[in-house]
Write a structure and sequence with these properties.
Layout: H1 9-28, H2 32-62, H3 66-72
Length: 86
């Protein structure tokens, strides 16, 4: 399941694109408080994008897919055995 790490590139690219446009819009704004807020939003978007990208790299290197763990972990690793009530 190593290829699932490549799927992290899609949200990473999207978040970096949004942060670019936020920074681009911040340069056109005249208010100091709004510029500070825009830069903070862009910084948060870049941090989240880097976290998603690093998790994708981790998945590529180790092959440990968190999505598959979450899907298989719902059953707690045990098969359901029906109980005979009669």
């Amino acid at each position: 399941m190593r290829w699932m790490g490549l799927m992290a590139l899609i949200p990473t690219a999207g978040l970096l694109t949004v942060s670019f446009f936020v920074l681009f819009a911040v340069e056109k704004v005249h208010g100091k408080n709004l510029k500070t807020f825009g830069k903070a939003v862009a910084a948060i978007l870049i941090i989240v994008a880097s976290l998603i990208f690093s998790k994708g790299v981790y998945t590529l290197v180790t092959g440990d897919c968190p999505i598959m763990k979450a899907m298989c972990g719902m059953q707690g690793g045990k098969r359901h055995v029906p109980v005979d009530l009669w």
